[in-house]
Amino acid sequence: MRISQIARCLYRMKWYVFCVLGVATLAGEVYLRLPCGRQLEYQPDPDLGGVFRPGQSSSMVTVNRDGHRGKDTDWLRPVLLAVGDSQSWGSGVPDADVWTARLEDFLHEKPDLGAIQVVNASHPGHGPYHQFVRMRRVLEAHKVRAVLVRVSIEDRRFTAPRPEELPRLVAEVEWRQQVRSVTKFLPFVVNKAKEQLPSMAAVFGPKQMQTTAVRSEEAGRKMWEEQSRWWERMIEVAAEHNTSLVFCIHDPTDLPSSAVLAANLAKQIEGRKNVFLLRLGSKAYGLRAGNTDALWREYRSRFTLFHDDHGNQAQHELVARTLFAFFQDKGFFPAGQPSYRPQ
Length: 343
Description:
Layout: H1 3-12, H2 14-32, E1 42-45, E2 49-52, E3 56-57, E4 62-63, E5 79-83, H3 86-89, H4 99-108, E6 117-120, H5 128-141, E7 146-151, H6 166-182, H7 185-204, H8 212-215, H9 217-240, E8 244-250, H10 256-269, E9 275-280, H11 292-303, H12 313-330
Parallel strand pairs: 5-6, 5-7, 7-8, 8-9
Antiparallel strand pairs: 1-2, 3-4
Helix pairs in contact: 4-12, 5-9, 9-10
């Protein structure tokens, strides 16, 4: 069939096409306003550009009144605060199965620790700068027993926005808010289209297990040069508020780049009171010894979601158990010490 014939056919069916598009758009609008289809929305933030709007939920995710993931926090009770990226946030995993929720479950199995809450202040797309900002805000407002900071070479590109960029970032979030007040379906379609671009590149482009840039020691050195000041600021703020700090390096495939971060962080915290370093390498994940490609294949098959590389429920469970054992080993919660005193 020639192009001209197709054009004439579409012209004759134009009202039918318009009706189908109209019905599909209306159905999409209705679905995205129901609890089962609702998408998380952002609000402007003067330091971060945009963050999830507090007090909303989707089918699997709750953003509480503080803008953190999960149920509301009682700040009069003891708190462990977690900051990190989308892996730490738990993209693709229900609220109850995210590592922070599971760690809280393990803590509550101990009679003296039943009041402790594990607050997930992580956020997708956040690197060390963003994590520092969220940590600082909480510590300035509330008493926190310890802060858990996810450290990953995956976050090497999540840098602090330049001051001159922030007005534009805030304006973009405000514009998206205005659009979503009118239609939720069209932004949904646009975002889904953007999300498919990396998948299409992966299908039609060259196959790689992990990029050389992620693996190399140079990547670790570069990230340290660009980001270490925010980890140092975290240490300073934690000390000011008499709060313990735990850096958790997630490195399931034992990358040279992550080894650089681990070595430099170990030097940075040396001699610091109440600052700890935990590295979750291939042994922590129970992976069989092998080269990086072999480790990645096993890790990918056992500990990530089917459709992307975010951690699955098994990974979140393992991280929670590992941290619980770490706390016990370090004596974070001495036996017989009450965890909560009403005020």
